Amino acid sequence: MNSSNLFDEPPLTSLSRGGGCGCKIAPGLLSELISKFALMPLPKDYLVGVNNFDDAAVYKLNDTQALIATTDFFMPIVNQPFDFGRIAATNAISDVYAMGGQPILALAISGMPTAKISKFTIQNILEGGSSACADAGIAIAGGHSIDSAEPFYGLVVLGLVHPNDVCTNSGAKLNDIVVLGKPIGIGIMSAAIKKGRLSQQAYSEMIAVTTQLNTPGPKLAKLAGVHAMTDVTGFGLAGHLLELATAARCEIQIDWNKVPILPQAHSLLGEGIFTGASRRNWESCQDTVVLPNGFGDANLTLLTDPQTSGGLLVCCDPFLVEKVLSIFNENGFYHASKIGKIVFSNSKPLIRVY
After folding, report:
1. CATH of 177-353 among 3.40.430.10, 3.30.720.120, 3.40.50.1820, 3.90.650.10
2. pLDDT, tens digit, for every residue of 98-130?
3. Catalytic residue among 21, 250, 315, 316
4. 267-296 exposure pattern, b = at least 16 Cβ within 10 A, e = fewer
5. Is the pTM of this model over 0.70?
6. Is residue 21 among the annotated active site residues?
7. Nearest by Cα to 180 from 216, 204, 223, 224
8. Average pLDDT value for the chain
């Protein structure tokens, strides 16, 4: 149900400056803000903290269980309230899957301009979030809400994982193959929504991608040859590849022709539609990304396009890549593709696109 139509409310995306994971603080500025905390030693039993900008914190409970804790929230990326709630919740749950865990509990975080949108719209957002949690086999057990100038919604998510199965972003090894689980282009499509330029077919494709839970994560983390994993969100493909390269001190080579891209993204770029966050992302990583001659502005925009509820990035032994792809395919991730490899280790972090 679209409550905006029923009550003559403004479109959700018109109520905020940004939307989805494109709302994130720029990666360069974020690094400066938390640099002091990243240098602090982790207390006993903390397996993962902020040191390598991983997807979630992990705390060892006992010899067979570790607790994963994460939170994620953002402003509207679409105008349909139910879809907004589903996307935001799916995105938040993804961080648990990216660490190799199974979600067990969620808390909702919401801020709503109650003078501008109806209670029916807010209820639909909450119902969308609850729907995504139900798909993940968990419930929203509580949360917190405020009356805010701009709408936002998200979750705190807790999960469990065996301590031996925790998969961080820092373990990539020389000759590992890099696999991407979902196509990119979500930021461009969200910009088209704000301009009223996205077709219904493209919208349906966008919703299918952004509400697809990254359930292969725990299965992949149990494979001995999977060395690193993260998910692609607001810093774009280049930014999250750089996080892998920085954490593992390696160079990653990317075959651009193998990167899956949403069908409508190229045509929308041709119409001049893109997000300002892609430029911001490029400014943060341009010194560590090498592009081929003739790469072009359109491809650069896609490389740095902020994703919301994006796909898993997996680094695995070459002998395991077909198994990794089969797990993705068995779980409905038909766009999953091997997009590159680790070509140097113990080196300056670098992304080389060819």
Report:
1. 3.90.650.10
2. 999 999 999 999 999 999 999 999 999 999 999
3. 21
4. ebbeeebbbebbebbbebbeebbebeeeee
5. yes
6. yes
7. 216
8. 94
